Amino acid sequence: MAVKELYIGFKGKNNTSAMLVSALSGQPFLLTNSFAGLKRDIDELPADYDAVYLFGVDKNLTDSFRIEKCAEKESARLSTTLDLEAITKRLSDAGISSTISKTPTHYLCNEAYWYLLEKYQGRAVLIHIPTIKNFSRISGGLL
C-alpha cells in the first residue's frame, strides 16, 4: 500500500516554500501567513495522511536545508516520529545537504508545525529551506 503524503508550504508569490510545494508531485497545500489563518487551514485538512512535510523559509540558510525535530508551544514540546535520517539521506541523494535541529524555532513555522504534529500524532516534519535567491544556488534551478 502506498504511503499517503502531503506537502505544505506558505502562501506568497515569491515564497520559496510555495514554489517548491507546487513543483512537487501530488496535491500542494498552502497555509495562510497568519497565526489564526494557519490554524484554521490545518483544522480543515483531512486526517488520513501517513506523512506530512511542511516547508518553511529561513533567510539565514544559504546552501542547505534544516530539518526540525520538534516544535514548542507554552514550554511543551512535540517531536516528529518520522525517520529524519532517512529524510536527510533522500535530500543528500538529490544533492541537497541538510542538518537536523533539536532546537525549535519560535514563529509562524513553529506554530504550524505544532498543530501538524498534534493533528497527525507526530507524522509530520518541518523542513526549513533558503529564500529563492539562495535556493536557486543549491537546487540547480529546480524552482
Average pLDDT figure: 91
Strand order of the largest sheet: 2-1-3-8-4-7
Provide the CATH topology: Aminopeptidase
Q: What's the name of the CATH homologous superfamily?
A: Peptidase C15, pyroglutamyl peptidase I-like
Amino- and carboxy-terminal Cα gap: 31 Å
Helix proportion: 25-40%
> Which stretches of 5+ consecutive residues score pLDDT under 50?
none
CATH architecture: 3-Layer(aba) Sandwich
Text of the CATH class: Alpha Beta
Structural class: alpha/beta
**C-alpha geometry:** globular
Run of helices and strands: EHEHEEEEHEHEH
Radius of gyration: 14 Å
Largest pleated sheet:
6 strands, mixed
Tally of structural domains: 1
The count of strands amounts to 8
Put simply, the count of helices is 5
Into which percentage range does the β-strand content fall? 25-35%
Characterization of this structure:
The protein is an alpha/beta fold and 143 residues long. The chain has one domain (5-139): Aminopeptidase (3-Layer(aba) Sandwich). It has 5 helices and 8 strands. It has a 6-stranded mixed sheet, with helices on both faces. Helix 2 (35-44) packs parallel to helix 4. It is globular and about 35 Å long. The chain starts with a strand and ends with a helix. The mean pLDDT is 91.
Task: Write a brief caption for the model.
With 143 residues, this protein is an alpha/beta fold.
